[in-house]
Amino acid sequence: MVNYMGRYFRLTKVKSNLNQILILSISIVVASIVIGASVLISNPHVQTPTLNPDIYPPAKNDNPHKVTYTLIAQDAEIEVAKGVMSKVWTYNGTVPAPTLRFNEGDDVSVNFINHTPMAHSIHFHGTHDAANDGVVPQIQPGEEYTYHFIAKEAGLFIYHCHAFPTSQHIRMGMFGAMIIDPVSHPMPPAREYLLVLSEFDPQNTLQEFPQYYPINGYVDQYLDNPLMVKKDENVRFYVMNIGTVLPASFHLHSTIFKVYQSGILYNSPTYEQTHLVAIGDTAIVEAKWSTTGKFAFHTHGIAEERGNIGLLNVVENDQPITSEEPSNSPGSTSMIPWQEKTLKSLESPQIVDYGNLTLTEQNIVQNYTVIQSDHVSIKKESWNQNTHDPFDPEAIEVPLGTSVTWTNNDTVVHTITDFKNTFDSGMIKAHGTWSYTFKDKGDFNYFCSLHPWMKGSVSVK
Ligand SMILES: [Cu+2]
């Protein structure tokens, strides 16, 4: 019995030692995996030992170029569908705006000029610092601003206006694509097209389900002008969804396709029949067609009946396709300049010329009724230019030393900004308040720097 018990204890001890060794080994393996993975995650510059030719890890550009663009905010009248003219807000007159294209590591400057009566900006997706983020500052009518950044991640990125309400500025047409080509190794030769999926309603900009879901700004344009493709050639689509309500289920007929999720070229691609592009997101898609013929491409769902459909014309290899231009990607052919030329002729933009827009105090309406009050309401819907007297009351008179409070009863941010820079509230959130104590006599004319047509005045006696 003693012997037996002794043996039992010995066995148990050996067993528990084995268990400890096993647990220790598993812990070491798990820790190694976790540490390895976290090094990879925290440092995307670490390359995996075997380089997958389908992915483009971040790389140093030994020959970076300085690239400069000029984008002008312009209101325009364009054709958005056959026979349908509409007022839009643009960069350089078209919807979408010009495509910006350069290499990973390039030094990029974008000169932005605002030729409209409203504040606008440019927000670029991808990596940059706060001064180049396009939210602060908002660029006032008549003003200029230069955005500057080093192109970091290779892939397809969106740029758009980030004035408020942003979805209205996007719906009105202020968006474009930015292609950043990889320098690590060339992408395979391909014919390249850009497909910008958006929403537009000529009657009511903010209609939840708008009348149109255009591809590249013009409804059904690729039913009349199919995208040309040669049999068996590699076709690369840069797809971006700048909708505001619906994600886009992008679908190609008669083939499956390779997708770089979120348009980031160091993601491992997947093969798909339909790819979901989130609102404000992109995808880079590569496909081939093994038979000639006309094939549709479209967003699955109600958008395809409202303009989001086009045709691909797949022709024999020896049939020439005109309007080819070299792409940044060596060996590839870009059809994007052809798309932009086609769009310009379809939209035939008429640019609105507002003349000198620089804000001056003389712009202030002087014949308003002055009311004695230390409280001003920023009225609901005052972001809308059609709302009368956005400040209520628009002109007040107060004794010296009075603290005046503004309450934002609108659903978007506003500012209270003095023309002479005596005071500036910064962003007042929806339903927020801001107060200022007047310690000098005089007339103070102010406006909202986000919506410069909103003007008011304080007279200190
Ligand atoms: Cu804007």
Structural class designation: mainly beta
Spatial ordering of strands, largest sheet: 14-13-16-11-9-20-19
Q: Give the radius of gyration.
A: 29 Å
Poorly predicted ranges (pLDDT <50, ≥5 residues)? Answer: 1-16, 33-42
- The average pLDDT is 89
**Based on CA inertia axes, which overall geometry fits?**
elongated
**Which percent bin holds the helix content?**
10-25%
Figure out the total of helices.
Answer: 4
Strand content: 25-35%
Hetero groups in this structure are: copper (II) ion
| Largest sheet entry | 7 strands, mixed
Number of strands: 30
Features:
461 residues, mainly beta, seven-stranded mixed beta sheet, 4 helices, disordered N terminus, binds copper (II) ion
Model description:
The strands form six sheets. A seven-stranded mixed sheet has the order 14-13-16-11-9-20-19. Strands 1, 2, 4, 6 and 21 form a five-stranded mixed sheet that branches. It has helices spanning 2-42, 166-171, 221-224, 336-347, and strands at residues 66-81, 84-91, 100-103, 107-114, 123-124, 144-150, 155-160, 175-181, 191-197, 227-230, 235-241, 248-252, 257-261, 270-272, 274-277, 281-287, 293-300, 309-315, 325-326, 333-334, 350-351, 370-372, 375-378, 391-392, 395-398, 403-408, 417-418, 433-437, 442-447, 455-460. It starts with a helix and ends with a strand. The protein is mostly beta strands. It is elongated. Bound molecules: copper (II) ion. Residues 89, 120, 161, 163, 169, 174 line the site of copper (II) ion (CU).
